[in-house]
Amino acid sequence: MTATIIDQGFTQPAPAAQKPNGHTQSDPETLIKEGYDPRLANKDLAPLKKQTWSWYNIFAFWMSDVHSVGGYVTAGSLFALGIASWQVFIALIVGIVIVQALVNLIAKPSQRAGVPFPVTMRFVFGVRGANIPAIIRGIIAVAWYGVQTFLASESLNIIFLKFIPASQTLANDYSFLGLSALGWISYGILWVAQACVFWTGMDTIRKFTDWAGPLVYAVMFILAIYLVVRAGGLGAIDLNLSNSAPLGFMESIPVMITAIALVVSYFSGPMLNFGDFSRYCGSYKSVKKGNFWGLPVNFVVFSLLTVVCASATVPVFGELITDPIKTVERIDTPFAILLGGLTFVTATVGINIVANFVSPAFDFSHVNPQKISWRTGGMIAAVGSVIITPWNWYSNDQAIHYTLDLLGALIGPLFGILVAGYFIVAKQRIAVDDLFTMDPKGRYWYRNGFNPNAVLTVLLAGIPSICCAVLPSPLNEMGIIDLTALSNFSWFIGAGLGLAIFALLERKRPQIVRLADSESDPNVSDGAAKE
């Protein structure tokens, strides 16, 4: 379906989504209207009746996302790039402000329409084509879910080994599929714990993140104070973590730019599907407030704590330790090991649930709403995370490089397509009811449910992005050319190309229908209107 005119009307409703007894489905939290096709709607994907989250819930979401072992190591590693500490902090601030601006963009369509990320993608890709970004994001989340659970299980191993010495036998003498018996026990405990939190629903997840983030902050402050005191005070700590000679001003600029790119790339996954969470927020203003406190403010404070803790390990333990799990392991006090270990387990579980459990739950449910509920979709992800044996996969650098970098390179194009479709082409107007109809007359049916412009853009923008992410390393190893620095910018390349190509294709051969002023149609979500 191609349209170049301003659309005034509303599509003819498709057959009502019905239960076996013939009645229209209803749910206390979401609204499934007559006309919603059951192949596109269930109680988890339909628009929310009430959006009850406040700015603090968004703030707590980002605390859980930032306060993880991966976030700790990433922030600490930036201080070892060879630039001065003040330059690192400038890069951190610039990078996280860019993330904040991008997250604000991606949050708006879902918050205004009250639907999760894969449903929002229907107005761009088509009601069937939206499964393309949903599956890509879901697979990435499953892979990282397994890795994060494995990393958290290593913290639990430390606690077992410290307080139950006999568990050393399980760690050394018995193994299965590349993981020790103790590793299986720790992994299983965390797997079940995360599944239980997830199974109780989004409200429990919200409550979990509300207290998990502040708890990690409290322990981080305690750990920082402990290490500083052990080191002999702040005067005994060198905050410059770089082992190389200081770079000149001109030499430091490309390194700072690389650090900025690394910050943005680190958040690219949860940034893409942030609509899964912004949909619950009561207003777009609250989303932006939560993003401000949760990203630039929270990230900079966390980074300061990170560099203080990492710097203090040099005088305390005689070597630089950037992994918080190993730092806690070196502490002699049993209570400190218990508190620190459990805290980093909690931190990693927090980011795992919000970033890698909720996302595939919506994504896999989107593929077949009739048979796959949100909870079923999440459990598919959880089971998949075991099947890939992440402990073997994570230890293989080549497997990580060619799998995650390849899939992750597609996050940029998907981000660019959604932003271009919503802000440039659709002018922030979405016909929400049309997101749930398979009627060929529906606005988002396009060609057999697919928007050819969006599919073509994924290919045209995805191929260069994948090449930038995957090829530099082997080309450098073969001695052909050193383009390794280019891989740090694959997200930006993909997002820029995705935005430009999709906007150009929609201008040359329009597919997305431009909606008239939403005042005449209450079912149209108008992001341009004042709250």
UniProtKB/TrEMBL annotation:
Q: Where is the composition biased (Polar residues)?
A: 1-11
- Regions that span the bilayer: 53-73, 79-103, 123-147, 176-199, 211-229, 249-269, 290-314, 334-355, 376-394, 406-425, 453-473, 485-505
Q: Where is this region: Disordered?
A: 1-30
User: Is the keyword Metal-binding in the record?
Assistant: no
Subcellular locations according to the entry: Membrane
Under the heading Gene3D superfamilies, the entry gives: Hydantoin permease (1.10.4160.10)
How does this chain sit within the bilayer?
Answer: Multi-pass membrane protein
Q: Which UniProt keywords apply?
A: Membrane, Transmembrane, Transmembrane helix
What is the protein's name according to its record? Cytosine/uracil/thiamine/allantoin permease
CDD domains given in the database record:
SLC-NCS1sbd_u1 (cd11555)
The UniProt entry lists the main location of this chain as membrane
Q: What is the lineage of its organism?
A: Bacteria, Bacillati, Actinomycetota, Actinomycetes, Bifidobacteriales
One Gene Ontology cellular component term attached to this UniProt record is: plasma membrane
Q: Name one GO molecular function term.
A: nucleobase transmembrane transporter activity
| InterPro entries per record | Pur-cyt_permease (IPR001248), Uracil/uridine/allantoin_perm (IPR045225)
The similarity comment for this entry is: Belongs to the purine-cytosine permease (2.A.39) family.
